[in-house]
Amino acid sequence: MNRNHRRQVLRMRGPAAQRGAALYVALMILILLALLGIAGMQVASLQERMAANYLAVNQAFQTAERDVRLRECYIEGVVNRDGACVDGEATIEQICDDGFDATNWAAEMSTDVPQVNRVSIRAIGPCISGNSSLDMGAGPENEDPNPVYQVTVYATNEAATANAAVDTIFRP
After folding, report:
1. Residue 109 burial class via C-beta count within 10 angstroms: exposed 0-12, middle 13-18, buried 19 and up
2. Which residues have CB under 8 Å from 83's CB, separation 6+?
């Protein structure tokens, strides 16, 4: 009888002694999984915003780069007198000592409302070679023995949410 009594006590103690411990463990695991899911969604959302910002900046940079190449083609047409890329026509400044700084120029453009693309072209060949005075005036653009140009473009993406500036030195 002692043996049978022990079996009955063990049978009663087993399930009764647990008192819902499995439920608590399962709830804790579910809470941890929910927290991991929330963290994963936040990371995915952040990565999506980062990708959108990268796309906007890249579009603005590509627009600026395209405009620079178009202006360089126009300058090539002016220097060679073949009229190439006339749709890239822009004013070519001929003054050496005007204090132009591409970084400050682009920073000023970024505060404009609405945002629009801008171009600055400067003939800097005479300034570099010393073939003219610092206050040289406008003259024939293609008579320079050392044709060197500074082309600076400020551009935005289509939505005007990002901007980029490209500054090049071009020698046709």
Report:
1. buried
2. 77
Chain segment 121-167, per-residue pLDDT in tens = 998 887 776 655 544 544 444 466 778 999 999 999 888 889 999 99
Query: Count of CB atoms within 10 A of residue 31's CB?
Result: 10
CA distance 147 to 11: 100
Which amino acid appears at position 127 of this protein? Answer: C
* CB-based contacts of 84, cutoff 8 Å, min separation 6: 73, 74, 76, 77
Which element (helix H / strand E) includes 169? strand 163-170
